[in-house]
């Protein structure tokens, strides 16, 4: 009997141990309730395993705190309960009290922390997948009695909000640790200023130390870095009578990320790199000297790219308040106005506004905000208000269409240049405004820009063609499309002439040479962003703060001494205005200098994304974006072809497609640029291996269908992520043995062979309904609806690369097919290599060397080369 009792007691003890072991297995438990305490050696783990709750010691400290951290990185602590009252040993325990509170007690039973929540019903605590520790009644999760997200420490997680609730007075903000070893509240806090335009401010006590920049409807304007990790997260801002709060939401499948306010007052966004098993810094603020609050004082402007002795300057119309202090590099006193504003009691004024481009808007505390008005109405209101010193758009969610009104009546402080910054309209007396037709004035269209390290902005050359020559069958095609511009095909011959003897006046501004020298650091080598056969491209910053791409054309015999060809190019290119074309902004012709100024594109070129070796970079262009890029390029080409004087690009390829901040494509022209001048009788053959239409290679036969062929090649590359051309090594082996003529012929022959074989693979996949085999494997498999669109795209691409121009659609018809999924598309013919290509190549090359001279009246066509 005694033995039986002992066995029963042993079994009972074993069951108790097993139950306790099951509870303390952190990977199995995410909830606990009264009677199930969390001791110092226990943990809770969220259901997805991302977050862990337990006791820890920070840094080299031996004191114990209850906290939540990322499971992959114990040092990444997200929340601390008993920040002010650490436990000195391992006796700490987390319990649920009889009154419905969470309590942290030490070994003596003293309360080190309490949630101060109450409930008359049994409650349960749960660590959610978001990292939020919540307390709710057992059996229901709809009513939260308490949550850790309402009491942030120094970290902001996805789904957590900061800001203010105006109804109950609640405010959520981050507070730094005192040191890396001490999580007690430190001297810095990061809070959302809700008194004007919302702005994230870092405070040290009562002093501002750093601003993120006012909310512009899409992001905090002083943090353009957010545009580079939109694949990771997105902002959510709530502005209502009840509350003004913001949060960020991590996108599904994205990496772990969080924002931390360090004990030094620095704000960082960290993203977990699973391969390196380390946190990567995606953003840090302050990032440089210009992020120091009030670095340049009132009405000062900070430029982090300037020399260290001149980061600060005064806004136009202002001078240092204390020149002696500025001479000693103390700019905190700011600037004062040179000429008093002209504003009477009746509101009449002669004042005007100076446009400052690409700046972080001034401190927006207490600015007047009206989100329901237009920017034009905002200007009128500011002029009518004698206290108004500046105004800006309050919302840029509609891209180029700015809306809303923010007006500053206090001093303008903490203004700096910043990439993708906003427009600020500064009020000045009439005498302080720049002359309306200043030779240094740049156009006021926004610079959306893009710089490409290996690709350069081209010299686009125009030639008016008045000759028509036929070397093959008549090219025909669809002559109508669902666009607002004409869709007409014209035949063009290799020979042409230009009869104009004078260049029309351009419609883009002229910029003097000194301004461009200063903008590029006197054409500094460190500012070079690309080189081409006819020029060097520099990154420049013009006086209003914008970045531009400055192409300095290398002198060539092709440029006539008077520069008439150059001026004709400027005149025609200044008229090409379309959302899918890189915009010519300005020009300079001074002595032997020929300079063109273009939009600056920071997001680089399409080829870097579709051909990049980094799968993460390729995955940035998901299928929706790729389809929009294809449609955008088609619209840009259709615009060129639809002009009264058709423009043939002749060098369409992924490296000539630039992407703006929203992945919108813009056509540019780079690398193999050629210039045409008066009396040139034979257009230079411009070809890029893999993209040139066969009739242009073999017979120098140029039509709008040549661009259609190049577009088709690009379309298939965008979908497949594979380069079209696979250059045979045989060419390099024999190049030293061939004459220049034979080398050109041999190269063209091999190029067309490679084109045919690569396109044939696409045709086989499409024809056998195995389209998924063709798709870029770096991008997730598309949904059925997208797969249908991609199948249509491949079919359209195959139509565009048909060997005979007669079988290709016009680009207008392509636009219609891409934008109307119900439109009928004919089946492309199977691509077969033409054995007659090589003999025609040799004949065409020989006749081209002899030169062509026949002319005829025909439509004017502009070659972009």
The geometry reads as globular
How would you classify the quaternary structure? single chain
Q: How large is the count of helical segments?
A: 15
CATH topology of the largest domain: Transferase(Phosphotransferase), domain 1
Q: What gyration radius follows from the Cα positions, in whole Å?
A: 33 Å
Helix coverage percent = 10-25%
Number of domains: 5
Our measurement of the CA-to-CA distance between the termini, rounded to an integer number of angstroms, reads 104 Å
The appropriate CATH architecture of the largest domain is Orthogonal Bundle
CATH homologous superfamily title of the largest domain? Transferase(Phosphotransferase) domain 1
Could you please describe the fold and organization of this structure?
- The chain is of the alpha+beta class and 865 residues long.
- The chain folds into five domains: 1-148, Agglutinin, subunit A; 152-287, Agglutinin, subunit A (Orthogonal Prism); 297-432, no CATH class; 502-599, 2-Layer Sandwich (Phosphorylase Kinase, domain 1), CATH 3.30.200.20; 612-638 and 690-851, Orthogonal Bundle (Transferase(Phosphotransferase), domain 1), CATH 1.10.510.10.
- Strands 25, 26, 29, 30, 31, 32, 33, 34 and 35 form a nine-stranded mixed beta sheet that branches.
- Helix 8 runs antiparallel to helix 14, helix 10 (704-720) packs antiparallel against helix 13 (784-800) and helix 12 runs antiparallel to helix 13 (784-800).
- It is globular, with a radius of gyration of 33 Å.
- The N and C termini lie far apart (104 Å).
- The model is unreliable at 11-27, 437-504, 670-685, 726-757 and 833-865 (pLDDT under 50).
